[in-house]
User: Which sequence fits this backbone?
């Protein structure tokens, strides 16, 4: 805070219009003089001049495209109030809330209202795809918003950040029911990961499988005999690896962490813990192979099992995790799970609208289907 730029007044005006700056009186108005001139200079942020990006003319109506020639720059400071408003705006647009007026923040500030209306209409259409009666206890994961919510009727009971599939490994949209929770799970390595990643790692490091506690079985049948890694020609195995069942044992470093939450489906997608919890500090979290990684798996397990009338406390769950012994808790009542893709939502408590990046490019395709005769632009993506 404290940096100056004559265009900050226009930024404040826009943030006041969007509702992110609640008290416009904290920004002094520009003096009234006769002769205007175009915006000069770069955009400033809280630390330094970062980019030579002017605020586009779309930021405000044409009447605000010019500033007075003798505007007293010292009165237009990037105040703490304006910084907080920018950060609030960034949070609503799933941007890094750093207060920096970078490329993505400026792009979001310059989005025409028509784009917002189109995005809201697209997401209203997506709601029609869900079951008409959403009631009782259920889990919803908004893929585009990187967030899980546990609800009971209309009440939010638990929420947490999640990691979803990266582009090319898109997390699918579907509805299913969770049937069991597994503590200290095996990781049954998908053939595609074995083929595209594990082979190269074994060739580079012959002890990789041993170090990662990965065992190999002759096939995917129950009771299949174990195969020694040295009996496989890793250099030439290629797609032949598909017939083998590679399984990582429970314990530290297991790719699924300490828990997985199963709703068996043809997509082979489920929710699980992860040893890489530092990734949850990122704002954009499309990072997995398609499964949903949980930031607070113990909390979710406790929530699900306690509401399923399982006779296990949170402390007992922690003890089970610490034992490193695998255990499956079959749910008495299967729990509905909805994996959804929402790039816009309205917070029921505050009335604030939130917009998310179209990480898989689905908004544009849906817009083409919904508005075939209109030039609808869904430009807010990463």
Assistant:
């Amino acid at each position: 805070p404290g940096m100056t730029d004559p265009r900050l007044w226009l930024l404040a005006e826009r943030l006041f219009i969007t509702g992110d700056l609640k008290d416009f009186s904290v920004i002094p108005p520009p003096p009234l003089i006769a002769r205007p001139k175009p915006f000069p200079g770069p955009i400033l942020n809280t630390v330094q001049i970062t980019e030579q990006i002017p605020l586009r003319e779309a930021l405000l109506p044409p009447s605000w495209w010019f500033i007075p020639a003798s505007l007293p720059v010292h009165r237009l400071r990037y105040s703490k109030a304006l910084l907080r408003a920018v950060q609030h705006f960034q949070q609503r647009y799933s941007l890094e809330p750093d207060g920096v007026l970078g490329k993505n923040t400026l792009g979001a500030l310059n989005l025409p209202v028509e784009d917002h209306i189109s995005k809201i209409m697209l997401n209203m259409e997506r709601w029609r795809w869900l079951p008409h009666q959403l009631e009782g206890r259920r889990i919803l994961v908004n893929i585009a918003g990187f967030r899980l919510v546990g609800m009971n009727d209309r009440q939010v009971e638990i929420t947490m950040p999640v990691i979803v599939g990266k582009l090319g490994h898109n997390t699918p949209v579907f509805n299913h029911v969770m049937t069991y929770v597994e503590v200290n799970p095996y990781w049954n390595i998908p053939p595609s990961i074995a083929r595209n990643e594990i082979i190269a790692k074994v060739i580079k490091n012959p002890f990789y499988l041993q170090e990662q506690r990965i065992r190999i079985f002759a096939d995917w049948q129950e009771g299949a005999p174990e195969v020694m890694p040295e009996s496989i020609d890793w250099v030439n195995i290629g797609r032949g690896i598909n017939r083998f069942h590679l399984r990582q044992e429970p314990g530290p470093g297991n790719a699924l962490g300490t828990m997985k939450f199963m709703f068996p489906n043809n997509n082979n997608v489920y929710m699980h813990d992860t040893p890489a919890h530092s990734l949850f500090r990122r704002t954009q979290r499309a990072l997995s192979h398609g499964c949903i990684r949980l930031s607070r798996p113990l909390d979710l397990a406790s929530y699900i099992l306690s509401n399923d009338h399982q006779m296990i406390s949170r402390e007992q769950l922690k003890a089970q995790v610490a034992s490193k012994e695998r255990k499956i808790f079959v749910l008495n009542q299967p729990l509905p799970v909805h994996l959804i893709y929402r790039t816009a939502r309205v917070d029921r408590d505050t009335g604030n609208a939130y917009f998310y990046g179209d990480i898989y490019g689905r908004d544009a395709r849906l817009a083409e289907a919904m508005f075939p005769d209109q030039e609808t632009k869904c430009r807010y993506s990463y």
